[in-house]
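Q: What does the assembled structure look like for these inputs?
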Amino acid sequence: MASTVIGAGITIEGEVTSDEDVIVSGTLRGKLVAKDAVTVEHGGVVEADINAGPVAVAGSVTGNISSNDRVDLQNGAKVVGNVKATRITIADGAQFKGNVDMDV
Amino acid sequence: MADRHATHDRTLIGSGTFVRGRVTGTGDLDIAGRIEGEVTCSGDVLVDGSGLVSASISARRIVVRGAVKGDLVAEEAVILEAGARVVGDLKAPRIAIAPGGLVRGHVQTGGAGAARPRTAAATASRASASGVSTAKAAPAAARVEAKKAAPPAARSAPAAGHGGNGGKSGASRVGPPPPVVPVLKKGTKAALHHKKR
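A:
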């Protein structure tokens, strides 16, 4: 399935709603809602609340992340905000400031 | 996995994606989904067949195969391919509309300048009207000019007559414009009646 890519040079200010994968290499401010996976790549900047399926972060996220699956904070990730998911991994080298909520 | 993490410099709004807001930046943009707001891009913008854009687009090159409601302004070219549906004005040095492309709006090729002809006529008539009110040296000549410009300036002409000292306001008055009623051929109404029944 085709996915949505926000390229490195692009800035979106507003709301992004998607039924498919979203890959952020650029900048997104506002709100991000996806039914499927969200990937914030190295160099990608998200200043928004993320509500999605599996979330993988290697870039920078300022905002709350809520996932109905897993959240992976990879090496180089910088996350400021609360994370709510069923499974969370934080890799060595990831920066993270916020609360973790794993519904047990 | 490694190639997925290579930085993308091409932006794609997929067919299942809806963006509301402003999209700006450098690089190319492919739109197969929906965008509502404003698109400003220094690269190429492609609105795919499934794309639905309700935004003004400003880019270097704009290629449209889908639907756009908003003005398209390109530095290089606007290309409407078959299946394109555009409601809005087009402005670019080069504009191509392929057979099968639909447009409703004003189209202007070439560089900047030259406003829309209709507004240009309006401003011209306004200018002539103001000329009538100010030029007291030769009011008769001015009135004649106003009469010449009567069809586009039909509404401003009486006002101009009042603005001048109104010596012969009756002469300068132009009758009401002809009614804008389509002339129906004989039997058209009957045919319509027949269709309804």
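The first helix of chain B runs from residue 117 to 134.
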